[in-house]
Design brief:
The complex is a heterodimer of chains A (about 100) and B (about 280). Chain A is an alpha+beta fold and about 100 residues long. Helices cover about 30% and strands about 20% of the residues of chain A. In chain B, helix 1 crosses helix 8 and helix 4 packs across helix 7. The chains are: A alpha+beta (about 100), B mainly alpha (about 280).
């Protein structure tokens, strides 16, 4: 039986997939994962998940995000007005200098 | 608080008591690690291979910690290992017995018996009057927990059917008497010195009794019987005869040193210390 292993570097971080181990049950899976995936890297926590319990699909099965043009969702799709950008920069500068004065 | 702070304050008698205590500890760790490494690329699965290799690596590290205690009394590495005569090693024979090919139950039962004894032994040294001994205990103990968990988990898995349980039973029958020799004292003078200096805070017979209690309870819980253990085997190790297979193991780990005609052991890291 294959168990997928997820490692978290430090408290609050994501558990990131880092490989798998063969083990007959949860307890041994954790013991093996500890050696294979947590011994040489900073580890705060480990998860093991039976591979068969993980459902998956790919972009081939289902076009993620649909098929019509949705570039409007991306900031990069917008024309950034130069004057407008200047306005923000000025405002930022004012705020920084105000913060500096009060300090 | 440890009364004996380090090698400089030891009298000749204290020094030899420290040696009498530490050599068997260091030799046990080193020799059992040598044996464990025979499983590399031969364990039942890749995962169990890595797990046992990890246990072996830990034990080598512990051996290093203990050998450093005697190194600070004036021994160098060749004297401690590669040029020491095989009959001047003081490990218990449990550590040196060869494995039968493919007998995984032996590996995990041996680890369980050894590491359970190890836990008790470390407990009896945590309050040692010799500081370099006492200050090593915590680091070693933490790693030992994995070893016991690994061994008991495996033994329980092997005992889920009759065939597997029989392999565990065979290993217990063969290894248990040898494991008891872990608690064999040195000479009476050494034992007196170790105990009167408080280098160890519990006697070996008391540790032995606790070990029998713990291991019997565990084996009974999985329907494995513990053999009658007296008398001890004829080749228990320590100050008595070693098993025959010890000689070939000794030849093996000293071979490279001899073939390269070495007179010292270069290291790639800076001086080890008892930090």
């Amino acid at each position: 039986m294959i168990w997928e292993v997820f490692r978290q570097d430090e408290p609050g971080g994501y558990h990131t997939h880092c490989g798998n181990v063969h083990a007959p049950d949860q307890e041994l899976a954790l013991l093996f994962a500890e050696i294979q995936h947590a011994r040489r890297k900073p580890t705060n926590s480990l998860w093991v998940v039976p591979q068969e319990e993980i459902a998956s699909q790919t972009d081939e099965d289902d076009r993620f995000g649909g098929t019509t043009d949705k570039t409007y969702r991306w900031v990069s799709a917008y024309n950034v007005d130069v004057e407008f950008a200047q306005e923000i920069e000025d405002s930022d500068r004012e705020q920084r200098s105000a913060a500096g004065d009060s300090a | 608080m440890s009364a004996l702070t380090g090698p400089d304050v030891l009298s000749a008698a204290e020094r030899s008591a420290v040696e009498a205590l530490v050599f068997p500890l260091a030799d046990d760790e080193f020799v059992i690690a040598e044996r464990y490494t025979e499983w590399q690329v031969r364990a039942p699965t890749l995962e169990s291979d890595l797990a046992l290799a990890n246990v072996a690596q830990d034990e080598f590290g512990h051996a290093r910690l203990w050998y450093d205690v005697v190194a600070d009394l004036g021994y160098d590495e060749p004297e401690l290992l590669f040029e020491r005569e095989p009959d001047e090693f003081y490990h218990a024979s449990l550590c040196a017995l060869p494995f039968d090919a493919g007998d995984w139950a032996d590996a995990v039962v041996r680890s369980y018996l050894y590491d359970t004894a190890e836990a008790l032994r470390l407990g009896s040294l945590a309050g040692s009057a010799y500081a370099p001994i006492a200050n090593r205990i915590e680091r070693i103990t933490t790693e030992e927990e994995y070893h016991r968990e690994h061994a008991t988990t495996w033994i329980e898995r092997l005992c889920v059917d009759a065939e597997g349980r029989q392999t565990v039973q065979n290993a217990v029958d063969r290894l248990y008497p040898y494991a008891l020799a872990l608690f064999e004292p040195g000479t009476p003078e050494q034992t007196d010195a170790i105990e009167s200096l408080n280098l160890r805070t519990e006697s070996l017979p008391s540790l032995r009794e606790q070990w029998i209690e713990t291991t019997s309870t565990f084996f009974e819980s999985i329907d494995v019987s513990v053999p009658v253990v007296e008398p001890l085997p004829e080749d228990p190790g320590r100050h008595d005869s070693h098993v025959e297979a010890w000689l070939s193991l000794y030849e093996e780990f000293t071979r490279t040193y001899r073939e390269l005609d070495r007179a010292h052991t270069p290291t790639i890291t800076s001086e080890h210390n008892d930090g």
